[in-house]
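Morning, I've got a small favour to ask if you have a moment. I've dropped the whole record in just underneath, so have a look.
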Amino acid sequence: MIEKIKAFYSNQKVKWFSRFLYYLLILLLLFFMYGFNDASAGTYIYNDF
């Protein structure tokens, strides 16, 4: 049973798909954290210059 699980996770397509989901989750999280604000909504670093 453990050998089947190791073989499943060592498959190249499974590795690619898991990395794809991981980075997609990070991008979606960043979008939901910062995507709903525009430049005039919050403090902008160059407003005081």
Notes: The mean pLDDT is 80. Helices lie at 2-9, 12-34. Residues 17 and 23 are 10 Å apart (CA to CA). Residues 12-34 form the longest helix (23 residues).
